[in-house]
Amino acid sequence: MSGREARVWLPGSLDELWKIWSDAPDAVLYAGGTDLMVRRRKGGPLAGSDLICLERVADFREIREEGEEILIGAGCTIASLMDHPLVRQNFPVLTQAFKVLGSPPIRNMASIGGNICTASPAGDTLPPLYVMDALLELRRENGLRRIPIREFITGPGKTDLGPGEVLSGIRIPRLPRYNLHHYEKVGQRNALSISIAGLAAIARISAERTIEDIRLAWGSVGPTVVRSRNIEKALTGKPLSSESMEAAFPLVDRAVSPIDDLRANARYRRILARNLLLRLPFRGVHP
Amino acid sequence: MKRKTERQPCEAGRSMPRLDAYAKVTGKTRYASDFYAGDMVWAGVKRGGVPHATILSVETEEARAVEGVIAVLTAEDVTGTNRQGVVRKDQPVLADHRIRHRGDPVALVVAESRRALREAVDLIRIQVEPLRAVLDTDAALRDGAISIHEDHPGGNVLLEGTLETGEGEDAFAQCDAVVEAEFQVPMQEHAYLETEAGWSVLEGDGVLKIEASTQTPFRDRSEVAEAIGLPVDRVRVIAPYCGGAFGGKDGVTIQSLLGLAAMRVPGRPVKMWLDREESFLAGVKRHPARLRFRLGAKADGTLHALSADLDYDTGPYDHLGGVVTALGLEHAGGPYRIPNTRVRARSVYTNNPVGGAFRGFGVPQAAAGMEQVIDMLASKLGLSPVTMRLKNVVRRGDRNAIGVAVLSSTGIHECLEVLEGHPLWRDRRAWKDRCPPARKRGVGVACVMQAVGYGPKVPDVANAKIELTPEGAFRVYCGVVDMGQGNITTYLQIAGHVLSQDLTAMEPVLPDTDQTLPSGSASASRTTFTFGKALIRASKLLKRRILERATDLLMEEDPRNLDLVPGEVIHLTSGKRIPLSQIALILNREERFAVARYRAPVSRERPTDREDLRLHGIPHTVFSFGAHLAAVEVDELTGRIAVKKYLVISDCGRLINPRLFEQQVHGGVAQGLGYGLLEDMIVRDGKIMTGDFSTYIIPTALDVPNMVSLAVQMEEKSGPFGLKGAGEVAVDAPLPAVANAVADACGVRITRFPMTPERIMEQLERSGEPAP
User: Fold this and answer.
1) How many Cβ pairs within 8 Å bridge chains A and B?
2) B716 and which of A260, B519, B624, B653 could share a cystine (Cβ 3.0–4.6 Å)?
């Protein structure tokens, strides 16, 4: 056990954040703390560390339209995003994921930025962000860079976040051409549940029910979220039917690399990775 | 003067809100774990950490040197028997010589702060010589298996019992259809909100006071005294409202350890409070069991022969494992007439976590097997599962599956009739036909019974005490713990009914070995049954005394001309009223109290002559019953089971407080659904791999369907106002009801529970069913 109590700062602005952080460079950044606090309780290097809480940094709590994109502050809570008209109207696949994330108290605390930086293969917001090609904004005291989410997350719990860098926002393009928005998560129960496997899909389905364009991302079946251009290409131009989906099963098998853990074995995860595609033909399509 | 509105007296049969609800939901209720005091110290233990080993030495020097550490104790410091247990006292307070499971406490630390405590516990080193760990019942029973208790004559078999009726297994030759199956049911965690907790102080008069989260204050008192070497009159146990228990606090948890610690710091309160992980590690569990059933019937569906073998893994200690196993044995044949049976149950020692009491007490395991094979047999004979059961359930006067005449009220036939006529059963086909794509719907039923009380040998006794206070109110000295069921409210309702008082005129005294009278445990579906009956008697005695003194006061001749109303005695012919406070003044202290005893009835039947089985509870005479229906939807793509609708019809006698009864049913079903569907305790090498709530999955509000609870209110003469126990029976049926519904939906039956999606998917694939 560390000999002293951990210190916690609550900066109200970016300027304050940079100042505090330079005084306490070893402090750990967080927003909601719903993952971090659990990990601290279990001991390890995080247990006694100093903390900087980002929940009061105003710049991180904004949601605004910027041309064809919407910028979501990384500190926005899941609950606030779930109710936000811009998010609900533009990103139904994300809203569906929010609804099955944790529980109401968790959603009131947890931030979308935290879900991304935790970089769990089971993170509920990640498959939707992958299919929408979300672009992340990373800030440092004297700069800003943008990086696609699939390049940012490099492994389980691993990201490309550099020293002195903080995730400040998520930029998502509006996707008006897509008329099928689907997220399904299989967990051990209906709330407060970690994903065993999940599938996010957005697609353009023609009046004749042909798949004109589709993007797919699987959670919890690999070290990071799985998106496969091969599968997407193979399905393009095919009818939205169980047969088309089944035809893609061999490609799914190749794309995923699930593991055994306490929640499920790899074999079951493989079955889910395939079968979750079979739900798509039953999904409603908005003309 | 305007007359105040008449206060409405309590009435048995009418719902009333819980007395404790407001204080609990506003956080005002003080549980044992809520105790803090300025001079308080902390106690905690170093646990074994290995499944099986001989202790060579316990090194405590470094721990003692930690600043703030007051004492470090090992088994050598225990002057009593250092043994706990209810039937077979085989569990050390602090392990001496041997570690028998990973959670065994080996050294006790008393410290000024939690931080010093933790630091000291981490510094204790236990030198051991590992022994081969016995990790399942097969290994325990194998020839040459290492004995977990060398002094136990039965080796690793704690208790074995066989009951036979009619021609036993020979009768299978006369059956037209026979099915057999083997099932494994899991360990289950109680998962109470309040983990094991309490505090203790050695007071100036030499009395050790222990306030604990417990179901059994009176038994704790003698158990602790014996284990740590004190005369029983120097131990006082107080049991406040308990934050959930479900059987997990039926027996000593932290009490003896607290006592040992408090003896080291006379006058200072010592607190011990397990965190969730330690509660998982050290707390008792529902016994995992392997069940082998063979059931045979005549062509018309009449049950004819049953053979059942139930093996319960009790972990390294009896705790209540023998009694749990005996109750499983008694209930193996369910609520059915079966003329020829051979049932055997064994309780087997292993080095797994300790098996103990848990709501249902051995019956959920038995029902999991029996209620599935009867469905399989019905299906083989082409009968509906309800028809099959209606044909075979016991009626009053019949002999049950172990040959015992059923003499008390028996409403399972009536429950089933209500189920058969209910829209959820009647219209099931239409509901199944409306199934969404890629899903299958099914409806299943299960019938269960649950014994009420302790059985023929151990006296099931309660002693009630009630006081007319000097202020004219009534104080009920409740001898049985309220661990959340609401029985304290029911006790006041009972006394209020007899004395025609409302709740504002009454107050409870919670269990305290100094204040209340020995009344047994809050367990065995006997909490309201036995104490309620004693309380009726005590209340009637007091009522009579009050009315007699009021008769004298009014120079009236016949007490029948007077009656009690809220706060007053009323003279019926003149309308004259005397406040109870006035009566209280003219009674001396002794007269203001009334006490009464009740001993629950016992069966005179002797299905076995083995005195040890009788001691373990066989047979019972009063049973509660239930018929359950589950309507489920199985997702063919994921194997997930959603329970969409749930119906329970119970025979728990007449209800005193229908609202509290319904809460018991809801809670029992939720816990039973967790048992059947979600709660997969994974134990490897004696180690719990799912030792917290992120990996051990209990149901949330979104996992439990709306439930319809109906009651067949048949009067049970031996119970208070015709009531029978209701705390357990609802937990027995959800697993088989859902399993039967799943089989109805998609034709698969899994044999290893819980029914996780992964296991369902495996079966769906194997059965060649869709699973594309």
Assistant:
1) 62
2) B653
- The domains of chain B, with CATH numbers, are 40-131+196-273 (3.90.1170.50), 289-455+605-766 (3.30.365.10), 461-599 (3.30.365.10)
Per-residue model confidence (pLDDT) at position A286: 76
Residue A72 neighbours by CB under 8 Å, 6+ apart = A63, A81, A87, A112, A169, A170, A171, A172
Where does B423-494 show beta strands of DSSP type E?
Answer: 439-451, 461-468, 474-477
Taking alpha carbons only, the member of A12, A7, A37, A20 closest to residue A164 is: A20
| Cα distance between residue A129 and residue A124, in whole Å | 10
Question: Out of B640, B678, B690, whose CB is closest to A262?
Answer: B690
Q: A-chain residues within 8 Å CB-CB of B703?
A: 189-191
Amino acid B573 reads T
- Check if A116 contacts B (Cβ < 8 Å): no
Please list the helix, strand and coil fractions of chain A in percent, rounded to the nearest 5, in that order.
35, 25, 40
Structure tokens at B301: 């569906």
Strand partners, A213: A204
Distances (CA, A) of B635 to A55, B438, B743: 40, 6, 13
SS3 A269: helix
Q: What is the spatial distance between Cα B292 and Cα B184, in angstroms, rounded to a whole number?
A: 9
Cβ–Cβ gap B700/A242 under 8 Å? no
φ, ψ of residue B61 to 5 degrees: the values are: -55, -50
Q: Tell me, what amino acid is at B421?
A: G
Region class of B287: left (phi > 0), else alpha (psi between -120 and 50), else beta: beta
Q: Rounded to whole angstroms, how far apart are CA atoms B680 and B671?
A: 13
> In which band, very low, low, confident or very high, does the pLDDT at B770 lie, cut at 50, 70 and 90?
very low
Of B343, B214, B237, nearest in space to B291 by CA: B343
A33-89: per-residue pLDDT in tens? Answer: 999 999 898 887 788 899 999 999 999 999 999 999 999 999 999 999 999 999 999
Cβ of B757 and A268 within 8 Å? yes
Mean pLDDT across chain B, nearest whole number?
97
- Chain B residues with CB within 8 Å of chain A CB: 115, 118-119, 436-438, 637-640, 678, 682, 689-690, 694-695, 697, 699-703, 756-758, 761-762, 765, 771-772
The predicted-structure confidence for B557-595, as pLDDT tens digits, reads as follows 999 999 999 999 999 999 999 999 999 999 999 999 999
**Predicted local distance difference test score (pLDDT) of residue A234:** 98
Residue B690 CA: distances (Å) to CA of A263, B54, B256, B453, B684: 10, 27, 28, 33, 10
Note whether A211 and A244 are within 8 A (CB). Answer: yes
For residue B41, give the amino acid letter: V
CB B465 within 8 A of CB B516: yes
Tokens 């100036």, located at residue: B204
